[in-house]
Amino acid sequence: MNMMQRMALACGMSLLLAGAVQAEDWQLAKDEQGIKVYLSSVPGSKYKAYRGVVDIKADVQAINALQEDVQGSCAWIHACAEMRLLKGNGDEAWTYSKIEMPWPVTGRDLVLHVKTDKAADGSIVRHLQAEPKLVPEENGQIRVPKLVGEWKMTPKGPGVTEVVYQVQTEPGGSIPSWLANSFVVDAPFNTLHDLREKAEKGR
Q1: Where is the START domain (predicted)?
Q2: What is the DSSP letter of 144?
Q3: N or C terminus of the chain: which is more exposed, having fewer CB within 10 Å?
């Protein structure tokens, strides 16, 4: 690895770690159907970070397979209108997605860099970071300028996986406060609900 590559890697990890530590004061916002959603204020941002936690009766590999089906995952990700793989390289992938917004709010699109780490205990962590300049912006969409987050899947016993989904984002443009407040709860709750349904149905 040359000096430029090391610097780029260090910068990338710094951004990921910065996103993770800025949201620390987690408060429970919803606890229903075995899914817990926590919110945290983020210094310098008017948008709250969210974290959803759920136990799914499926093994890590089954849940990971659903996430690696990029196009198919749009069916269970909240407000997803379209998702496709831009490129992949080993444990790294870049995806493009469109996010539905209620009228009259303009829809968003998102270019995401996904880095997957696998641990010896069988857990998987998928790091998420927006790369808004990777592909040209599309007409009729507002590009999400910043997103940092992660998926964490940890085996809890035979056939049971704890899934944690955490995101901090700046959606770009103007978002009404009522929509922003509902989205940060609905996004993790509905995503984990539908992922669980899909994973457990496939058992």
Answers
A1: 1-203
A2: -
A3: N
C-alpha to C-alpha distances, 12 to 15, 62, 113, 134, nearest whole angstrom: 5, 29, 10, 15
The CATH architecture assigned to 3-201 reads 2-Layer Sandwich (3.30)
- 130-176: pLDDT as tens digits: 999 999 999 999 999 999 999 999 999 899 999 999 999 999 998 98
Which amino acid type is present at position 139?
A: N
Identify the helix (H) or strand (E) that includes residue 108: strand 108-118
Task: Please state the pTM of the whole predicted model.
Answer: 0.87
Residue 193 to residue 201: CA distance in whole angstroms: 12
Tokens 């799914």 — which residue? 56
Which helix (H) or strand (E) segment holds residue 187: the answer is helix 177-201
Contacts of 68 (CB under 8 A, 6+ apart): none
Q: Which long-range contacts (CB under 8 A, 24 or more apart) does 147-150 make?
A: 147/110, 147/112, 148/15, 148/16, 148/18, 148/19, 148/20, 149/19, 150/16, 150/20, 150/125, 150/126
Instruction: Give 146's strand partners.
Output: 170
Specify whether the backbone of 9 is left (phi greater than 0), alpha (psi in -120 to 50) or beta.
alpha
Nearest to 56 by CA among 164, 182, 160, 176: 160
Q: In the structure encoding, which two tokens stand for residue 144, read together?
A: 């999400």
